Amino acid sequence: MSELRDAVADGARRRMAQASAIATICKIMEPLDVAPASVVKSTGIFVLDRNLGGGLPSGSVVYLSGDPESMSEIFLHQFTQTRKTYYVTTGRRPTYVAQNIRSMGYNISKITFIDIYSEYYLTAHGELVDNTGNEYVDNQIIDFMIYNLQNIETEEEFDGANILFDTFSFFLNLNVNVGQIKKLMNVIYETTKELDGMTYLYGLKNTHDPELENEIINACDVVFDIELIRNSDEIVSRLSIPKIRGMAPITDMLKFKISDGIQIDTSTDIA
């Protein structure tokens, strides 16, 4: 773990050394160097892209707030089909996630898994261990995630890759100082902008501190809100996108079903 801390610290020092001029009082500042951003990037969901004018603004960090019963992770699975993807697994082994993605008919050849689950819940010998609430281990897993993000930024160099967190709720529920979560969020945001990519943070509704979640939502560029409605004769899944920095949000509620991926209902009836 000491080597990991040293690597993270070295990465932070390199980022500071390479940064452009920073604003201070009474000085004219130079603009920061950023990746050349394309206009939009496809979500991989045709009807949604059409409603968005082609996709979401490139370089966006997206918070996907989903009802746990709505199978919201299928959105993540479909997002993997658009470009190279780093898929962060926190609740299951990557093998099982890959099986589910393949079962939906998707190709996994562009996916690189980052196995937070095994790093946190398994020993070196593959035995399950309960680290829940262990402040030391929780801080180390955040450092491990930051280390991986820095490696992605070094490897990709403006390649525009996806980074998917399944789930980000895992990090929000760690027993760490809130400053650690904010540090992780800052690295996620900076990495996404530097790569001109797309990052999706999947958060489970009603499972973590609402004040902390609101801070994450405020930092994100886009918010997907997915809910499950139980009517007398059917269960309806609905999507809204109330926040999109850089373009007008989608104000309509969009019904969808899971069949061959995400199928958006183009009718206007959302009852």
Amino-to-carboxy terminus distance: 53 Å
Strand order of the largest sheet: 5-4-6-7-3-8-9-10-11
- What does the largest sheet look like? 9 strands, mixed
- Runs with pLDDT <50, length 5+? 19-29
**Percent range for β-strand residues:** 15-25%
| CATH fold group | Rossmann fold
> For the CA atoms, what is the radius of gyration?
19 Å
| DSSP helical segment count | 9
Structural class comes to alpha/beta
CATH architecture: 3-Layer(aba) Sandwich
Report the helical percentage: 25-40%
- Please state the average pLDDT score: 86
CATH superfamily: P-loop containing nucleotide triphosphate hydrolases
Overview of the structural elements:
The structure is a single chain. The chain is α/β, with parallel strands linked by helices and 271 residues long. It has a single domain (37-264), classed as Rossmann fold. 37% of the residues lie in helices and 24% in strands. The chain has helices at residues 2-18, 46-51, 73-79, 94-103, 116-121, 135-156, 169-172, 178-195, 210-219; strands spanning 40-41, 56-57, 61-66, 85-89, 111-115, 162-166, 198-204, 222-230, 235-244, 250-259, 261-264. The strands form 2 sheets. Strands 5-4-6-7-3-8-9-10-11 form a 9-stranded mixed beta sheet. Strand 4 (85-89), helix 4 and strand 5 form a beta-alpha-beta unit. Helix 6 (135-156) packs parallel to helix 8.
